[in-house]
Write a structure and sequence with these properties.
Length: about 180
């Protein structure tokens, strides 16, 4: 079984794999620039960075859109910051999917909800009516309606069911990186 990943401030041991010597040197330089240690053997690594799916059963970040089964997928030219984030995430047991030029390409726009809107959203998720929400939160039904309309606008949805589905999808994206 794989040992736990080092703490966030400690360098990872990374095995870098590529069949193209120039690409291998470039990936190794990025790993070093990210502050990690290169190891020669996969069995000695916390995580593998590879061009293709030659990472066996080890936690791996794959560049060039390679192996869809890898825990981390990066685009063709990731920078040191992206490499660092992906390696740390995969070493910690998370999965990463980066396509295009940067992390921003895959993420949904951040939706900022107020604490009260979150309370209303959670109550909607419990199947509560506006009247029940008003009683629970000790606010007027008009105020609940205001918060529901604000939620719909911010989440870009038209129904309570869509609001719950979208909020669940946003939460999953935040957790999976």
């Amino acid at each position: 079984m794989h040992e736990p990943a080092p703490a966030m401030d400690e360098p990872l041991k990374v095995a870098v794999m590529s069949r193209v010597a120039v690409r291998l040197a470039g990936l190794e330089a990025l790993v070093r620039a990210a502050g990690h240690q290169i190891v020669a053997r996969v069995v000695d690594a916390d995580v593998v960075l590879a061009d293709a799916g030659e990472h066996a059963e080890h936690p791996a970040v794959v560049s060039l859109g390679g192996d869809a089964d890898a825990a981390g997928l990066l685009g063709r030219d990731p920078d040191a910051r992206q490499i660092d984030a992906a390696l740390r995430a995969v070493a910690a047991g998370l999965s990463v999917r980066l396509q295009g030029g940067g992390f921003e390409d895959e993420q949904e726009p951040e939706v900022l909800l107020t604490p009260r809107e979150l309370e209303v959203l959670n109550a909607i998720g419990e199947g509560m009516s506006n009247k029940e929400i008003a009683r629970r939160l000790d606010i007027s039904q008009h105020t609940v309606k205001f918060h529901v309309e604000s939620l719909f606008r911010k989440l870009e949805v038209r129904s309570r069911a869509e609001a719950i589905a979208k909020s669940m999808a946003l939460r999953r994206n935040r957790i999976e990186l």
